[in-house]
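Input chain follows. Return structure tokens only.
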Amino acid sequence: MTERPSSDAEHKQRRRPRRSADQNRAEILRAATTEFAMHGFAGGRITRIVKKAGTNPRMIYELFGSKSNLYVATLENALSALRTEELTLEVMHLDPLEGLLKLFDFMNGHFERNGHLVSLLRTENLMKARFMKKSARIHEMSSPVLSMTERLLKRGVAEGKLTADVDPLRLYVMIAALSQFHLANVHTLSAMFERNLAEAKWRAARREDARKMLAAYLQRK
């Protein structure tokens, strides 16, 4: 009896190396990040995530349990990358003002390199942090960064270099706003003012403006 020729799909399936649970999880999170950043939670589709990750629906539900759990894990993963890099910054030995400006430089660069994070945060804000509130991990990740900001401020005040009435949380929110507002609104602002705000030269000039504003705000008069 003549053997039936195998299809290309079957051939690829046989040759695809078996992945570990960690590898599957990483591929699914990578695909989910792209999907949810582009389409949001409501518009995100498990079928597209499955295709991009090269997996199957059973594996997604086995590892994450549900679409909402996968979305929360995607948020945690994206923010974890930001927090992990923030906590490796060597700023505590610097002059307090330079340390805080270095934190801004890092955050500004991170958001510019990771547009998916800007999109995910924008989507989650539209839903009033509905899913972020379910994650204890996200809250825990934020605490060390705020503590680092507070220590730099306290040292700067003690050394007579920084103004004494700066709240650490308000400062961190200000740094975050100066790092991503122009990215979250790049298309509308570019259309309104007929200027390409994605242009590298414009962004570099805006970054220097933001640094000067922060320095002027922080320095003791």
